[in-house]
Amino acid sequence: MSAAALILGAVMLQGAPVSADQLAFGLDRLQWGMSAPAARGQYPALTGAVVEPGQPVSTLTLADYDVAGCRFNVLLTFERGRLSQVDVDSNGVARLAACNARLKRLLQDQYGGLGGGFTTNRNGFTDYGSWGGKAMNITYGELDGAFIKVTFRGMGR
Question: How many Cβ atoms from other residues are within 10 Å of residue 57's Cβ?
Answer without folding.
Answer: 12
